[in-house]
Recover the amino acids of this structure.
DNA sequence: CATATATGTCAACATGACTGACATAAAATC
DNA sequence: GATTTTATGTCAGTCATGTTGACATATATG
């Protein structure tokens, strides 16, 4: 099943290597969230807050529904962390001008500061790993993971470079 | 931050690219757990059960403390899922021969069957991504992620099995 | 005007982490 | 042989973050 398909079965498709790939992803993800988790705890925030801060930071004036589509959680789940972040003034909501039902989300100054602090930790980790692995390896990392994520996410998050709506 | 340290600052260390690397890891991890989660739900199991099944499957006769060290959770957390898996006969515990305090863990026949089913889903995903990306990219993927995980995990999980790159 | 959409809220529940305290059997050590 | 340490388990409570379902309100759209 892992094998016979095109007749060719490259070495890196051996079960053992696939298993290694799986575990690498598991451990890397775990280690990569550890440091931000510790920072967030200082503020009484959790990983869910981080995600919101990350994507609002990267997509200023994003709508609630766009954010929900990216995070792929229910509005009730988002509501808890988002209102928490708004209450503590890390995020502000502004009424949309074209569509006044929308609450456009943006980081406040403290939101930006926290976002920087959190992402710095992760960027450092990536920068180190990238530097040690080299440019070619980075390209490989991208290729493999890009092939693993759903087309939906790929288009939504990595596809567009053009500004749209609003 | 996107630092100047060795004087050289390769293109792939630009903040934008580091951010892409971070998001790739986030989305890949999420998508990669989705299918197993659905399978597990059939059995009334969750992601925590999957981890136990995975590492017991890959390390037959593992002790509880070794498993705890790999999973990096408390014994109380492990206890809940492990006893569940034992009760439903996906895992058996055998008294250690040298050390009779130990409960060596092993998958039962149904445990193996479930492990196969879960890992098949993830192996397929990896095999596809690997095949599309090519051998060189796979090597890059490994290099980057290996550099991102803690030394502890690297040694414990990837050390003894396969001698890793230079 | 009628309906669809964007957002929010209440309430209940599940999962999987955590801490802290305590229990038992067996191994290791004095 | 007595004591201490280790491997494991258990009770009880808490927290973060996900879920479903029902309902509310303002605004946009046909």
């Amino acid at each position: 099943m892992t094998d016979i398909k095109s007749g060719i079965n490259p070495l890196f498709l051996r079960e053992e290597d696939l298993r290694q790939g799986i575990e690498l992803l598991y451990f890397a993800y775990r280690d990569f969230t550890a440091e931000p988790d510790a920072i967030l705890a200082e503020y009484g925030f959790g990983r869910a807050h981080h995600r919101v801060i990350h994507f609002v930071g990267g997509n200023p004036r994003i709508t609630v529904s766009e954010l929900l589509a990216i995070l792929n959680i229910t509005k009730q789940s988002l509501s808890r962390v988002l209102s928490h972040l708004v209450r503590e003034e890390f995020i502000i909501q502004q009424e949309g001008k074209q569509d006044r039902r929308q609450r456009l989300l943006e980081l406040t100054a403290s939101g930006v500061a926290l976002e920087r602090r959190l992402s710095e930790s992760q960027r450092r980790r990536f920068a180190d790993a990238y530097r040690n692995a080299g440019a070619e390896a980075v390209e490989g990392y991208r290729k493999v993971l890009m092939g693993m994520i759903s087309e939906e996410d790929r288009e939504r998050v990595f596809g567009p470079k053009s500004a749209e709506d609003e």
Notes: Chain B touches chain A through 62 residues (CB under 8 Å). Chain B has one domain: 13-155. The beta strands of chain B are 91-95, 103-107. Residues 15-43 of chain B form the longest helix (29 residues).
